[in-house]
What we know:
This protein is α/β, with parallel strands linked by helices and 722 residues long.
Amino acid sequence: MYAWAERLANLPFFLAVQRSLAVTLPLIMIGALALLVRDFPLQSVQNTMDRVLDPSWRQICDNLIAGSFGITALVVVCAFSSIMTTLANQRDPLPTVSPIMAAIVSLSCFFIVSAPAETGSWPVLFSLGQGLLIALAVAIASTLLYLRLSRISALRLSLGAAGHDPTISDVLTVLPAGMVTMCIFALARFLFVPRGADLHDQLHHLLALPSFSSAWDHLATGLVYTALSQLSWFFGLHGPNILFSVEEDILAPAAMANAAAFANGLPPAHIFTKAFFDAFINMGGAGCTLCLILAVFLRGKDAGNRKLCLFALVPGLFNVNEPLLFGLPLVFNPVYLIPFLLVPLIQTITAYLATAFDLLPRTVATASWTTPALLSGFIATGSLAGTCMQLVNLAIGTAIYIPFVRIGDRLLEDRGQHMLTVLLRAAESRTTGPQGRRCLDLPGDAGRLAKLLAEDLKGVLDRDDQLFVVYQPQVEALSNRIRGVEALLRWRHPVFGFIPPPLIIALAEDTDGIGWLGRFVLREACNQRAAWKGLVADDLVMSINVTPRQILAPYFDLDLIAALQDAGMPPSQLEVEITESTIFEPDAASLDMLGRLRLSGVQVAIDDFGMGHTSLRYLRGFPIDTVKLDRSLTQVGNGEVNEPIVLSIVELSRALGFRTVVEGIENLEQLDHFLRIGCHFFQGYLFCRPVSGEDCLQYIRRHSDGLAASSSHFSARKQPGH
């Protein structure tokens, strides 16, 4: 089921539909709150507001509803066209189609196809409850047609780039395709919609159900009604409005007949009434979305969905479910299709059987549709059994929604991890965008995610549960001791988990935050090394990574010395590691900074050395103490190619008095290989993974006492003369 849901959810069509519906969320939220206030279930509250605010307060609510729910269909047309075109451009960048132009074309087609005969019908056509299906259908058809026509060379104007604003050029290039699209929709209206007819009325009559009141109280009939209502909602149609004839001709009269029989001391005759569906099926709104909210709170892991459900909780308690329908969204969402249909059907069965077997009284009163669950069940039946039935149905619905919430969370997680992979490649490529940024200048979803992560990164210094430093020992094989420890930055994001360090650095550089991030790592590392004073050897060195921007920043050396003094740590116990690309083009400023660091007593290392652009001859002129081999050179399987490179680096480093540290040692085969060619200092998972400061100290102390797991291995493999 997960694979099926993943394939559908990742289709550009479904992505565009869901995102276009989510775009309407601000309108949906304000409209839902205005609707809730206007139709608040307690008449005493409404009377109080009449006295305090004057009855005109209802007009304010009506204006808010008209300006939100009343224009949602138009917003969906524009949003879908723009988003679908953006996705199409990402998949096939040539030729580029302007998303704004696509939205304009689709909006025009919507007016062409659905223009009513009576001008007073326009508000119905624009509204959420009445016009959404036509709007979405036209947006889909017109956008797909426009994109197809835009890729036909005969319908593109060849204007060239010279002398034209790029936006104007994009619009003019696809102008013929847009005009042809609008003409095709005008022809379709002429051929398929009777002259003078209203498309909305035609659709309403097409979907209207015939009356079958004689068989209404049969379970099968109730299930058909529930299924059709839910299916309508899933496709963006207001189910009760589509099936209004059933409510008007059957459900409402049945409710009145039950109420009259109860008032006369007679047993109510009908099971299915409007009060029955409102109380036991539509808790939280269509799809029993109150169950979905509970399922997300109980088992949901996605922080965004949990926040959305928190916002939707208050409207949902009063059976206003539009925030979830269009925010999560549920409409056109294949992940939630099954529970959205299944939960109300099962609840219909349970409530019907409980009533048929006299476990639940028949409904005898009609509460306002905004009456909260648990209270509405009691009002509808006049018995606590109604409340108990609601609790049972809520439990059943929540249990059904939970596995689909997990699937939805997993899809979001997989999509997020894919975007993180894209961002990581950009962070490691060193290629910058138009504004000189590696990640924030990326287009599409990757760029938006980069901006969100960058915003999150700005606030993590105040949260010690997200940003922290771990430590990985560096082992000297010949003396079987810990020579140093590297401080490594980690970010545990509440949604995406651990963010790769290169991406953290790239985001910090893109937002000019590398200075405070570097100071955070420096302060944490110095404080940790100072805390080990007297517990480890005095010559154990703490290494930190620095970036080119840090090295070139004014007063970097003074900030570093100040951090050492604050921690009470001698400069000789600190080593700064600089990636090889930092010193690829050494200039006077960077060399002067490195020289001042060396004079202060701080040690300097070149990290990831060996496979970049730096020539080995540059080593003679750099004020460094240590060379750390690039991880790509530690793969023993490529020894035929790598070994001569490693040997040349090791020999030159020995001649110049540098230490050579081999990173990425993960197995004994690698260790034996590098011991054999004369390497002495190692770092990698074979010895110790990056761990907390406390765990690192325990490892160092065990190793110094000869208790480390690898001690006997080193003793057996020491080579004569090394």
